[in-house]
Structures are given as C-alpha cells and as structure tokens.
Amino acid sequence: MDYRQKIIEEASVMFRTYGIRAVTMDMLAGRMGISKRTIYEVFSDKDEILHGVLNWMTEKQHAVMTIIFSESENVIEAVFRMLELMSDHFRKMSPAFRMDIKRYHSEIVRKLGEGNELPYFKNNSEILRRGISEGVFREDIDIEIINKCLFEVAKMSNDEEVFPPDDFPNKDVIRNFYINYLRGISTQKGLDLIDYYETRQT
What we know:
The chain is mainly α. Helices cover 73% and strands 0% of the residues. The termini are far apart.
C-alpha cells in the first residue's frame, strides 16, 4: 500500500470520528507516525484528502453492495440489505463529520453527486432493471426518470435540516422514503415481497 492510500484510510477514520475541521495535518501526521511534509508531497490540502476519502468510501461501499446484490434471492431482499448497510454506516458516522460536509465542503459532495458517485446510489438503474425482469417492478416505468427520482429521494432523506436526527431517526426516514417510493412502482409480487421483508425486520 502506498502513502496515498494509507493517508486516505487514516483520514477516513479520523474525519468520521472527530469531524473534518477538527482534524489537522499535524494530527494526521502524528497519528500515522510520518511528517506533515510527507502528506503535502502527496496531497495539496485537506480538501484533496477529503475528495480521496469520499471516493474511497464510495468504492468500498459499492463493492459491498455488488456482493449483496449478487447474493440476494431477489431484488427486494437486496434493497432491504442495502438499506440496512446504509443506515448502519450513517449511525457510525460522527454528527460533526456530516455537519462539516454540509457547511464547509458541500461543493465536493455536489460534484460527486453530479457524477452519480455518491455512496449507495450507483446501483439504482441495475436494481430497477433486475426488478422488472423478476416481475417485481412494473414494466411501464421509465428507468432513467425513476433512477433520478430515487437518487433525489435518497438525498432528501439524509437532509438533517429537513429531518433532524434527534426527531427523525435516519433509519426510519430512509425506510419511509425509499420503500414507499418502491411500493409505487411495484407489481403485486413486489408489494408482497416488500411486506414480507418489512415483517421480518420489525
């Protein structure tokens, strides 16, 4: 593993634990046992490190979701497993990290979002196509339009100004938004599967 990857992985842990603003280059260098100069030889500033962290997190989560998708018996099971993973991820993330991203680094996230590179949202088209082929989703839906809608639904469900986590647990918001949206595009077979997996997780 090269220094770039080591820095990204250590920064990922520190950002998610303490928040982005609280982590300095000196702290990161001290944690890794290297000089600050070594970090600056690889990254120009903390924003570049953050961009690397977000990309790396995305790649890891996408790889896990690909495994879930391939191992699940049907697309609805895959969706419920993915939502559980997503909820667990946000539960372990420091509120300071989310706040710093929103207040001071939203441009980075916006650019990732424009490229459909945000964690968890890459698989929607694949989910929809598989759902149609399994008879779970209606054949008359427009995959491109629904894919964009699901992306926006997922983003909205994570907006803490709209849904403060103290009042609206992230897991409940995601489920209510995403699952109820899927109900609207489901066949009877899909609705029955949604009811089955919801019952299993209550």
